[in-house]
Specification:
Helix content is 39%, strand content 13%. By secondary structure, it is an alpha/beta fold.
Length: 158
Amino acid sequence: MSPLRLLCDEMLFRLARSLRAAGYDTVLAADGAPDRDLLERCRREDRVLVTRDRKLMAQALPDVRAVLLVDEDREAEARALSRALDIDWLLAPMSRCMVDNTPLSPAGPADLARVPSTVEASPEAVKVCRTCGRVYWPGGHVKRLMEKLSCWAREARD
């Protein structure tokens, strides 16, 4: 895993989910969290701040590593972040829960029983979040997300 750890401001929840799906330890700021708390967490946990908030960005520098994103389109955000931080969008795909950032674990029998019977996936390909209980399998949603991450990885290389 990469030592790069991120903290996304509350406006970047979709990007945070994509970063988690790529394997990055990415926390999302709580709605309305005071700027000073976010900056302190970045310092304490050695996280890179990713924000759209120019005021927060100005407060962060120079003691917190930070990236300001100016576009509100996730595709543009991903490209800008790739340039700024050399993001590997295929670092460790689907190794973290997209919702709560917990590392995923292999699925047990009870978890496998929750996978739709129409899914053709090996038991080893099914993962579970031990915090929230979500089960991830290589189905349509994950397949579409992996295609998106692969596209961003190709763009970053080019």
